UniProtKB/TrEMBL annotation, chain A:
It comes from Psychracetigena formicireducens. Residues 11-518 form the D-Lysine 5,6-aminomutase alpha subunit domain. The keyword Glycosyltransferase does not apply. GO terms for molecular function: cobalamin binding; isomerase activity. Pfam families: Lys-AminoMut_A (PF09043). InterPro entries: Cbl-dep_enz_cat (IPR016176), Lys-AminoMut_A (IPR015130), Lys-AminoMut_asu_sf (IPR037086). This is D-lysine 5,6-aminomutase alpha subunit. Gene3D superfamilies: D-Lysine 5,6-aminomutase alpha subunit.
Automatic annotation (TrEMBL), chain B:
Its EC number is 5.4.3.4. Residues 102-243 form the B12-binding domain. The lineage of its organism: Bacteria, Bacillati, Candidatus Lithacetigenota, Candidatus Psychracetigena. It comes from the Bacteria. One of its GO terms (molecular function) is isomerase activity. InterPro entries: Cobalamin-bd, Cobalamin-bd_sf, KamE_N, KamE_N_sf. Signal peptide: none annotated. This is D-lysine 5,6-aminomutase beta subunit. Gene3D superfamilies: Cobalamin-binding domain, D-lysine 5,6-aminomutase beta subunit KamE, N-terminal domain. The keyword Isomerase applies.
Length: 530, 243
């Protein structure tokens, strides 16, 4: 984290505050890591099966990986890890993993009939073979994908990010292609309502959804293919985004890896606070997910923008900064390099307050200066978008100017019709045209700036940073889990033994084995990073 | 009789602007179609002021013209008879006297709606535009469940908290699901036999009192509604019910 002594950023932030924030961030992340290191979850186990390439569902649409994992649970074998059980089944029946999972799921093989799993060397070896083979396949696929991407231009920063959300993947494709041809660099397919509360991944290509389109492996593939086609047409690589969050977080990460996604929204704290997902469950899931995403070179983007949507954004700006620092160190611990950690924030202060533009600019510079090696995801105004689309264009222009001036890397474009409906095809055009103007006309503006020592924006940024440090001290003292339980964030209390998905957390047994835990990147950059 | 029509810079000029996309490439055909559509809408002298190709097979138009339609003001009936506001102190006093307990209010945005701005403006202590939120009233006990609560779960919470009032907020309109969600909740409440025991209120920028009543709610609040208006409505209803 943080600027080197040579490049102190435009704000020239006090070294002491930065060092303290850094120390606290590391300490909080380590404590979380210690607490979850002996845990696994049903969704991590299912994701491990999906890493092997297991897919499909029974006639009712229940995925095989869910049924198989439930069977392991009810046979009281889950604490060994599902891959050990699967390897055992494969060995006894000479079936491939997909067949073995289906046979067990359909009750044609009973797990209780198996000799007890004791982590014998032979089973472990087979387990390693299965995982190594899958890992190699995925690595090859990744290389192929990289070769394809390298034939294209990667576009210029900031990348323009727009959403599609029709509910129908084929309609999404039309809207996404239009946006890409008009200049968008990143397409996010919004998920269908409350998919994050499903403890499984739905199946198949879908054409109906509420508020968005189901995230399924098949839908991912449809959109990827369409965007690859547009990428080839424009010569510019178009990135695809989906949501790696909710109860099935690690499985979605796996599908993102398999289907060539580039960016995933990934933030456990959002799920804890706003979806009442159990904190132990989702922070454990997040750790595994981030290791998968790291392997896939998939950028994560975090959800700090949500922390200021229901409170005074100016007053509570420091909660965004504190959360970014925690997220940054949690991500480093999970093996993500700084360049893959897309920290989120938003333009949400009351525009009628005097100097609000300066406060927004100060906040954007603060994020940029704190995390110079990370792509920052900047979210547009939503709270003060009223249906006056003309005024909305003005606010979005102010947002775009700040985005360009402070070198935010990922600009999520505001729509003039925010708060009215999910974007129409012309809304995206108007927003892309707006952002392209600033990229082109003001792209080099940041090189022209220095701030005077007495700058109001500098003072404001330092004040926010120091308040964030104070909040981090409190969180560090209590531990993140207790802080969440006591309502430190957004005044919402989430005890660690309550909330959705808690039943899916278990302590790994002494014979637990999952070869992916040693194959996936882990905590590689923590010490080397400046 | 007094007729009203849009105004640009001369009375009765009917000046109007529209914009839309067509699922057709930008060419002479789609331009002609856009003008024909404007004429069918009653826009005389339509002029295309801007066109844009929107990727593959889509085009965008901005058109200005003069609306030929006009409306007789006398033919318009509005139902905006506002109930007088009971003030903060009176609400607390009246409820305290009558009930001698806290009134339980459960609020949420339901279904796909992730927007909590309106709900928070009404419920959170801070309120909206200087008007304090329901949480600030000592006689109200507010449970703000936040966004994207499924109607079934909301019903569960209503029963769990023994709510006197339920407040649902809906903003985003996608294929009318907001209406579907709102009616589903009313049906669930009726199914649970709670209809007469609970005051149901819905709110959101595209909701009106008329629509709310049509959907089976006791009250509805549109854009720019203030917490004090909602509090006043709740107090009035509670007092009426207890008579």
């Amino acid at each position: 984290m943080f600027n080197s002594p040579v490049d102190s950023g435009i704000l020239n932030l006090p070294r002491d505050s930065i060092n303290e924030a850094r120390y606290l961030g590391k300490s909080i992340a380590s404590a979380v890591h210690n607490k979850i290191k002996d845990l696994s979850t049903l969704s991590i186990e299912r994701a491990s099966l999906r890493m092997l390439g297991i897919r499909g569902a029974n006639q009712e649409g229940t995925p095989w990986v869910n049924i198989f994992t439930e069977k392991c649970l009810s046979a009281n074998l889950i604490q060994n890890g599902v891959l050990m059980i699967l390897a055992q089944v494969c060995k006894h029946t000479s079936m491939n993993p997909q067949q073995a999972v289906e046979m067990v799921s359909e009750n044609r093989i009973h797990l209780n009939d198996l000799i007890e799993v004791n982590g014998s060397k032979e089973i472990k070896k087979l387990c390693d073979e299965l995982a190594n083979k899958a890992y190699q396949n995925l690595s090859n696929k990744k290389k192929e994908r990289l070769n394809f991407i390298n034939t294209l231009s990667s576009g210029t920063k900031p990348y323009l990010y727009v959403i599609v959300a029709t509910g129908n993947i084929y309609e999404d494709v039309k809207q996404a292609k239009s946006a890409a041809l008009l200049g968008a660099d990143i397409i996010a397919v919004i998920r269908t309502t409350a998919q994050s509360l499903l403890d499984y991944i739905p199946q198949g290509i879908t054409t109906e959804g509420f508020g968005g389109t189901a995230a399924t492996q098949e839908n991912f593939a449809v959109m990827r293919e369409a965007l690859d086609e547009v990428s080839q047409k424009t010569g510019r690589y178009i990135r695809l985004v989906n949501y790696c969050s909710g109860l099935a977080m690690p499985e979605i990460a796996t599908l993102g890896l398999i289907e060539g996604l580039d960016i995933m929204v990934n933030d456990a704290v959002y799920g804890i606070l706003f979806r009442d997902i159990n904190s132990l469950r989702t922070l454990t899931d997040q750790e595994f997910s981030r290791r998968i995403l790291s392997f896939g070179d998939i950028i994560i983007v975090t959800g700090e923008d949500n922390l200021i949507k229901t409170v005074d954004a100016k007053e509570m700006a420091h909660t965004v900064t504190a959360s970014q620092i925690i997220n940054y160190y949690l991500a480093l611990k999970s093996g993500l390099k700084p360049g893959l950690i897309g920290l989120g924030h938003a333009f949400e202060m009351d525009p009628s307050e005097s100097d609000s533009f300066l406060h927004e600019l100060a906040q954007a510079w603060l994020v940029r200066d704190l995390f110079p090696q990370s792509p920052i995801k900047y979210m547009p105004p939503t709270r003060y978008m009223t249906g006056n689309i003309f005024r909305g264009m003005v606010l979005n222009a102010a947002f775009n100017l700040i985005g360009v001036l402070t070198n935010q890397e990922i600009l999520l474009l505001g729509m003039p019709t925010e708060a009215l409906h999910t974007p129409f095809i012309q809304d995206r055009f108007l927003s892309i045209e707006n952002a392209l103007y600033f990229k082109n006309a003001a792209g080099n503006l940041s090189n022209e700036f220095t701030l005077k020592e007495s700058s109001l924006m500098r003072k404001r940024a330092i004040e926010v940073l120091n308040k964030a440090v104070n909040l981090l001290k409190v969180i560090n003292q209590k531990g993140l889990f207790n802080a969440l339980a006591e309502g430190t964030f957004a005044s919402i209390k989430r005890p660690e033994n309550m909330g959705r998905g808690f039943a899916g957390v278990f302590v790994k047994g002494s014979s637990y084995y999952n070869p992916f835990l040693s194959l996936l990147p882990d905590n590689a950059t923590d010490e080397t990073e400046a | 009789m007094m007729f009203l029509k849009p105004y640009g810079d001369t009375l009765n000029d009917g000046a109007i602007q529209i914009s839309f996309s067509l699922p057709h490439p930008l060419n002479e055909t789609s331009k002609k179609v856009s003008l024909e559509l404007a004429l069918k809408m009653g826009i005389a002298n339509p002029k295309i002021t801007f066109t844009q190709e929107l990727g593959e097979g889509f085009s965008f138009f901005i058109i200005y013209g003069n609306l030929s339609h006009e409306i007789d003001i006398d033919s318009i009936k509005t139902s905006k008879v506002k109930e007088p506001i009971i003030d903060y102190w009176d609400i607390n006093r009246l409820i305290e006297e009558k009930f001698n307990r806290k009134i339980v209010i459960v609020g949420a945005t339901i279904g796909s709606d992730a927007h909590t701005v309106g709900l928070d403006a009404i419920l959170s202590a801070k309120g909206y535009a200087g008007d304090v939120g329901l949480e600030r009233y000592p006689v109200f006990q507010v449970h703000n469940l936040g966004s994207q609560i499924l109607p079934e779960l909301l019903l569960e919470k209503i029963m769990d908290k023994q709510a006197d009032v339920v407040l649902v907020s809906q903003v985003v309109t996608q294929k009318n699901i907001h209406i579907h969600n709102l009616t589903q909740l009313v049906e669930l409440i009726e199914g649970a036999g709670l209809r007469d025991h609970i005051i149901t209120i819905c709110g959101g920028p595209y909701l009106s009192k008329e629509l709310a009543l049509e959907l089976g709610y006791d009250g509805g609040f549109g854009a720019h509604s203030l917490p004090s208006e909602v509090a006043s409505f709740i107090a009035r209803r509670l007092l009426e019910k207890s008579k």
